[in-house]
Each structure stands twice: as C-alpha cells, then as structure tokens.
C-alpha cells in the first residue's frame, strides 16, 4: 500500500483542522470514544453541528482558543492509500512550523477562505511550497457554502494563484483547485451537488490518485556516514562497515566511490542490511557499506560516486527561512548543522529579503526578522561538501542554531 505524506497550510480560521476532522469522520477513521468526545464538546459550545477541528487540536490551549499551535501528525488509511497529514498552524508567528511540516511532504494542501480570497499568509505558504519544491499542491478553496458556492469567486481565486505560479522559478509543480466546504462535507470525500459547475475529483479521490513517490528526486548519490560499525566478535573481528542512508541515487557493489573530505578513493565491497547482503540498493535505503580498501572513514564523512563529487568549500550562499525572535544580521555567529556534519558559521553578508508575493527582493537589508526569507552568504569553520537544493534536497539543506539558546534559528536552502 502507498504511503502519502501531506502537509496542510492556510491562514487562521481557514479550516485546516476542520477539513482533516471531516476526512477522518467521512472515512470512518475516528474511534467511538473520540467521536463521542467531539459530540459532547460541540453540544457544550452550543453548536448544532459537529466541531471536527476537535479531532486534531490536541493541546489544551488549542481547544480553548479554537486554533492550532503545534504541528499535529494524523494517520489514517483508505483501501488504496495510507496517509500521514501534518496539520500545521496558520498564525504568522508559527510559519516556521509550516516549513517543518512541508519539508518532508510529497503533497501539500493550501486552504483559502473563499470569503477572504488570497491574503498575505496565502502568499507566504504558497511561496514556501515553491521554495521546498513540493511537487503536488492542492489549492482547497474552503467555506464555499458561505459564498453561495459561487463559481465566479472560485475562478477569481484560481486566477490569482495561477498568476503567482507563473512567476515561480519552480515549473514542475502541479496545481489542483478544489472548491469545498469542510464543515458541510462538500467535495471532501463525497461529490457535492452544490457545485455542478465543478467537474474535477473530490479531495480524497485526488489524494488517492497521487503517486507516493519519494520526495527526493533522482539526482547524484550521497551517503553521509552516521556511524562506523566495528562488532569485534569472533565472526566479524575484521569487519569495518559504514552505516547511513542513501540520498539522491543508487549504490551497487563495485561502484567507485570517493570519501569526503579526505578525497580518498575506493570501491564498494559489500552492502548489508541487518543479516542480509545486497548487490544494489536504492535511494532512501538505510544500510551498512564496506569498502575494498582500509581507508579512514568517520562519522560526518560522506561517500559519493567518484564521478559525482559535490562542492567542497568553507563558503556558501543560501536562502534562509528565519525562525528566531532575535534577527539575523551580518557578522552574527551560529552553529551550522548540515546532515550529520556540524561546524561554526559566520554570516558574511545579508544580500536581500525575498518578498513572498513574488514581487521581487529588498536589496541590502540591515537584518532578517522572524518569518522573513532572505539570501545570505556564510563562512564555516571547516569545509562542507554540499549540493544546491535544486539538485539534491537532502544535501542542499542545513539549519542554523543559536549558540546562546541552542534554539533552531533558521533553515537554509543552498543555492
């Protein structure tokens, strides 16, 4: 069975939690006690309908305020597909949570309140999905019942989003527009009679039709070493293996590889997974690899195919999504974590702030504040071996850590 990872996005009160609750209800994925709790709480609030947002808002503060604060992961299945949905907050101050939720997703649902249309948070969420190169984006135009299921209103919002998409540098993204009402159930799981002008699929049918491909597009092979395996048992007294996860491409016994940063060359001798050996493994596999030569390999090193060596440098330029209350400024120092590698980093320059409505950039700003996205140049204390995010997602990202608070201050996408 396919497993599809989905992120949700949208402004406050656009109905993300209600939509997910409706899907769970209509697919019979809610347990009896959960459904009873929703019915009781809805009655206590004086509602004459079921408040489906209670199915996902798990924190006390979320239930009391009727908002989503933290990222909630919801699991459910249909006969065709298993789903993992990241229900992310809509408030501007929680945009960083949306970045986290979308970073590992194969598809994203961007909700828009049909009454309000495209607003600032819509620009930001749509831009982030483009920045993260999410392939399948569903524009769910919600609360159609409050605009009399107007086709004109639907087309107006659709045209605005398509105009934004035309200005994006990422052209492989597939957009799907669905008019729905999460509260009433229109076009969520069942086709609605209130939108006879809409000829497309319901939201659930469309999600089931998506291919649950790996979010990592085929690219050059990268194998960051997580740990060195030395059993030191009678049966494996000479065994020296390197454990990690394969990104980008595939690996096979006999492949010529280069160890970074030492640039030592060798060939793959064997590939192990638990008690089995394989001649070839695909990207996404977590395995242990042995080499023909007794070369020096440590945690934090990377094995790459000899003809596919990435950039090795102490300087890099990147697009940063800033997540810290303390603004980023030139000359600031942070810890950088790139894969399993870490080092000290210094911000050499902040060249621009990117406007999330695709209208351009603000050149040479003095600082980058919470939830802003900008282009920076960094210098690190030791060479990193990296790719651009466009070529290899896993090897093209990093996080910056505030050395004073140990908080994640920003996430970077290498250019």
TrEMBL record:
One of its GO terms (molecular function) is ATP binding. GO terms for biological process: sulfur compound metabolic process. It comes from the Bacteria. Its EC number is 2.7.7.4. Signal peptide: none annotated. Keywords: ATP-binding, GTP-binding, Nucleotide-binding, Nucleotidyltransferase, Transferase. Pfam families: GTP-eEF1A_C, GTP_EFTU. InterPro entries: CysN_GTP-bd, CysN_II, CysN_NoDQ_III, G_TR_CS, GTP-eEF1A_C, P-loop_NTPase, Small_GTP-bd, SO4_adenylTrfase_lsu. Residues 1-219 form the Tr-type G domain. Coiled coil: none annotated. This is sulfate adenylyltransferase. It comes from Tenacibaculum aiptasiae.
């Amino acid at each position: 069975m396919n497993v599809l990872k989905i992120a949700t996005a949208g402004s406050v009160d656009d109905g993300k939690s209600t939509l997910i609750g409706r899907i769970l209800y209509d697919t019979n994925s809610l347990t009896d006690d959960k459904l009873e709790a929703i019915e009781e709480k809805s009655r206590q609030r004086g509602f004459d309908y079921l408040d489906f947002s209670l199915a996902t808002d798990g924190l006390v503060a979320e239930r009391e305020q009727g908002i989503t604060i933290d990222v909630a992961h919801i699991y459910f299945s249909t006969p065709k597909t298993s789903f993992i949905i990241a229900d992310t907050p809509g408030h501007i101050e929680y945009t960083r949570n949306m970045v986290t939720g979308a970073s590992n997703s194969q598809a994203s649902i961007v909700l828009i309140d049909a009454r309000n249309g495209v607003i600032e948070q819509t620009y930001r969420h749509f831009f982030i999905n483009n920045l993260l190169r999410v392939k399948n984006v569903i524009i769910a135009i919600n609360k159609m019942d409050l605009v009399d299921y107007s086709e004109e209103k639907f087309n107006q919002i659709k045209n605005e989003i398509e105009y934004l998409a035309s200005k994006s540098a990422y052209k492989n993204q597939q957009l799907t527009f669905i008019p729905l009402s999460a509260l009433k159930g229109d076009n969520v799981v069942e086709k609605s009679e209130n939108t006879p002008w809409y000829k497309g699929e319901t939201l659930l049918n469309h999600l089931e039709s998506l291919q649950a491909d790996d979010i990592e597009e085929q690219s050059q092979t990268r194998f960051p070493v997580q740990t060195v395996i030395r059993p030191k048992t009678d049966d494996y007294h000479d065994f020296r293996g390197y454990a990690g996860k394969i990104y980008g491409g595939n690996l096979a016994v006999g492949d010529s590889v280069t160890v970074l940063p030492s640039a030592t060359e060798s060939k793959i001798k064997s590939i192990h997974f638990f008690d089995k050996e394989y001649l070839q493994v695909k990207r996404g596999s977590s395995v242990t690899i042995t080499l023909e030569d007794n070369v020096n390999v440590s945690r934090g090193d990377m094995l790459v195919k000899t003809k596919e060596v990435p950039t090795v440098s102490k300087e890099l330029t990147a697009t940063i999504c800033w997540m810290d209350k303390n603004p980023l400024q030139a000359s600031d120092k942070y810890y950088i974590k790139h894969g399993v590698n870490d080092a000290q980093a210094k911000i050499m320059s902040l060249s621009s702030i990117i406007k999330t409505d695709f209208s351009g950039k603000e050149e040479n700003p003095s600082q980058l504040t919470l939830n802003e996205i900008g282009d920076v140049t960094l210098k690190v204390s030791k060479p990193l071996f990296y790719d651009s995010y466009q070529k290899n997602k896993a090897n093209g990202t990093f996080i910056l850590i505030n050395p004073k608070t140990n908080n994640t201050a920003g996430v970077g996408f290498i250019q």
